[in-house]
Amino acid sequence: MQEIHADQEIIGKISAAGQLMQCSASLDILFLLDGSYSIGKGSFERSKHFAGKLCDALDIRPDRVRVGMIQFSSTPRLEFPLDLYQTKQEVKERIKRIAFRGGSTETGRALKYILRKGFPGGRNSSVPEVLIIISDGKSQGGTGMPAVQVKERHITVFAVGIKFPRWEELHALASEPTDQHVFFAGDTDDAANGLYSTLTGSVCSATAPGCRVESHPCERRTLETVKELAGNYVCWKGSQQPNAVRASLCPFYRWKRVLIKHPSKCFRTVCPEPCDSQPCQNGGTCVPEGLDKYHCLCPVGYGGDIHCAPKLSLGCGVDLLFLMDSSAGVTLEGFLRYKAFLKRFLQAAMGRDSPMNVGVAQFDNNVRIPIEVGQHKDAFSFMKSIDALNFGGGGTLTGRALRYIAQHGFRSTPVFADVWDDLPRVVVLLTDSKSQDPVAEAAQYARDRDLSLIGVGSSFVRAELAEVTGNPKQTIIYSDPQDLFNRIPELQRRICSVDSPEGCQAQSLDLTFAVDASAGVGLENFLRVRDFVRSSRLHFSINRDVTQIALVVYGSRPHTVFALDTHTSNSALLQAIDQAPFLGDSASAGSTLLHIYGDVMTVQKGARPGVNKVVVMLTNGGGMEGAAAPAQQLRDNGILVFVVVIGDAQRDILLKVAGSPNYLVHISSYEDLQYYQDLIIERICEEAKSPVNLCKPNPCMNQGRCVLGPGSYRCECHGWEGPHCENRVLRGDSPRSAVLPPHSHVRHGSSGWQHFSRASPHTKRH
Questions:
Q1: Which CATH architecture has domain 273-311?
Q2: How confident is the model at residue 6 (pLDDT cuts 50, 70, 90)?
């Protein structure tokens, strides 16, 4: 064992530098690996691991570092010469395959083998030669003379101890000065650092700027068995007289295992860390990232730059209104906590040149706006106004407050004489009490007036906040009162990201949920799945230009609850999902997928060409016989099938339906379904961002043929006409172009071809 007498910071720097070092030079390195019984198989494997780790610090290639290996025990055995492997990976893989041989520890014989054979596959002393002996130093033959002869040939010898090494013999084997050529294999990073430090300047290239080799006192220890006098005991000895014995005192010895200490010096390379200069200000904590990078963990109220400068101003221009619950439900203590939270937020976010305007409103039975948006331009006067706010008590009418704020919370103010501000308007709802009036319609009313809603509260009001914001990602949930203050940086990010939607909020998508409503699922579990669909809608921006959602429930027959183009808002979807019926008979997934292919994901029912399409099937795994072929038909037409199975089911059949393990999620129980929502939505969103084929599924009706063009498609119609071949050509009539609104993306060419180019996903449909 080896211990460097230095503080933990220095030890950490030595280890970090050891992991990053690389020796790139013309160099021949031969490992001499002890494979004797005194080492044992376990320590032999550790020796191999150590040799492999040292290779990480070597630039192994034919013109730079070459590596070979000899295993020795009773006799030496060449495992591989230096010229056999040309890459680091090949050498490391070969070292892993070396088998333990066992036998006596004949180190002297191994050294004589090297004296006779040289470095097998080496470059004949035209480049520096390094011998690395990995052994416990317990040789059963003489090593002194062959060790001297090896070093006389200008071979640099490193001796690395393994297990409980005999350090005296290792020092005799190693080159001078021995302090710089003897290491312990138990700490690979330290040993790599030591070996590199010794070779730096003479063989390897110089260390990185600022790095230096330092000397540290260290102590090497080994476990030895020694004979110890235990005392003198009475014993009986023979006498010259016949038939007589005599008593005497005899010494008694016992064997004892003791640690033998060998004081020494260890030379190691230490590199400066980025945190040495203490770059983080105002109580920030510096966290190093390698040898040249760091980041600061800043306290709340700081972080204006990477060094925790004071006054972390919001870098975005917004009109911001805090809607603070002052009802009896939050209690006086909670209200005072909200006031402290607002003051802390202002300290952190409201700088002298901050482009934001902030106000505060309170609500209980009534709504008040004691601090108008933009009334204060500095944090000090703002905080004095917050101190003057009084607790109201009374009921919690959140819905009424949201509607009032949408009407009266923001007043447009002129920036210049004839220019009015057009900043994003953000409302941050602070509450920990459930509303006593409905919030969904009031929140939708506010969002329809271009207000971005962010909800902050405990897990007690998580569901209600998600309903208010319309997007679970716009809710901030704190675990305890103190954690509320830790959420200030997250709130700042949410406020500044309201104009840049995340995930599927900005992606065009046609999405169909297929829900198993059979008797095998049961009414209670069906209602759980329906709630899952209900909450999933909040992750999408529902309108004609971004996301359209259809819902199909199925038993023995499928039933379309609503089509893709039926509902154009989240609130309308909410009411429609609640009307989805439980059917209660047997399940037929195959007929349902055929129904979705032919009667849901079609242009006639609102599917949009050039938009990604996903079917999410929620099932207990029943009725899947015959579903694989319709699922493949959907995939062949560019429609992804995502299978969510709850409970025990046959994975092989489900995998054929999903088409890939990436699109199959297995959940143990219906109670756990809610915990997989983020994963499922994330997978759907990934699909929404993938490239799309404008002709899949075929947008042309009545056997019309879709032909792709550069960024467009066109329909070839036979006996039909119109943008998608939807009108029959009557006999005797000449083909007529469809009457299209101005600026349409459709044109009628010769031979009945209809041509479309893909519009922006946010272009209004005519």
A1: Ribbon (2.10)
A2: low
